[in-house]
Amino acid sequence: MVTPEPDPNVERTFHTIQVKSTFREAKLPEGEILKHVRAHGFCEEAIFAIKLALEEAMTNAVKHGNAGDASKDITVRFAVNAERAVIIVRDEGVGFEPESVPDPTTADRLSLPNGRGIMLMNAYMDDVQYRNNGREVYLVKRNRK
Amino acid sequence: MSPKDSLTTSISPSERGVVVSLVGSASMDLCDQLHKTLEDACQSRPPLLIIDLTGLEFICSLGLGAIVVAYLRVQKNGGRVALVGPSEAIQNVLTATKLGNLMTIYPTIEDAHTGR
After folding, report:
1. Which residues of A touch B62 (CB under 8 A)?
2. Within a 13 Å sphere around the CA of A61, how many CA atoms are in the beta-carbon half?
């Protein structure tokens, strides 16, 4: 029996991975997601972009969303097909307003150590949306063959 | 899941300061190691800190943050930081974040020494 691939257009069909809110655990879904992305023929540039955006989303979930509370969970849902990869990362925090995060590339903020995650996700993914008051980030990368 | 990323860091003296070489992936779970290495490299207050990115395949914002912290420490002591040999993928990250405006990027360590 062949298990049908999750459909990136139908969220209820997605793969789900839940991890605790530490950097070590937050790294775990990456391998599984990149395995699917490679299997569907995404180019190396797209793979780099997905890896980077996923790390930024997970870092934000650990540091800001769940505020370093390792007892909290991060839920990652994803679906990949030959056309696109969709990844949804949800934390258990209080949420935030993405519009309130300042641009880290302005001259006065360039030498700050933090604050580049959202900008990198926006720069590397085709679609980035925040849902559930910012507790959930929805990332899309299209496969340009 | 998948093979774990790895990051190898090394510190070596150079004619005008210190060279920190990064090989592998500066992923979120490995950036403490990067931060510690750069902190160690800054201890001697080098007039020139060269960060050799030739072998670096990936960097996230935490890794960029570690480099910015090192930059601030070196600059505070009157020194400068040079980035060397980024791959196209790493160069793109530096361009997107405009960190190339903060630190000069050189093709080789020799160029970083001469500042050309």
Report:
1. 59
2. 34
Q: What is the CATH number of the domain that holds A130?
A: 3.30.565.10
Which of 1.25.40.10, 3.30.750.24, 1.10.10.10, 3.30.870.10 is the CATH number of B7-114? 3.30.750.24
- For A101, the domain range is 11-142
ipTM: 0.94
In chain B, which residues touch A (CB < 8 A)? 1-5, 27-29, 58, 60-62, 64-66, 68-69, 71-72, 89, 93, 96-99, 101-102
**What value, to the nearest 5°, has the Cα angle with vertex B80 and ends B77 and B83?**
140
Q: Which of A17, A48, A55 to mutate to test the interface with B (most CBs of B within 10 A)?
A: A55
Q: Is the pLDDT of residue A56 over 50?
A: yes
B27 and A55 within 8 Å at the Cβ level: the answer is yes
pLDDT of B79: 96
Give the model's confidence band at A7: pLDDT under 50 very low, under 70 low, under 90 confident, else very high.
Answer: confident
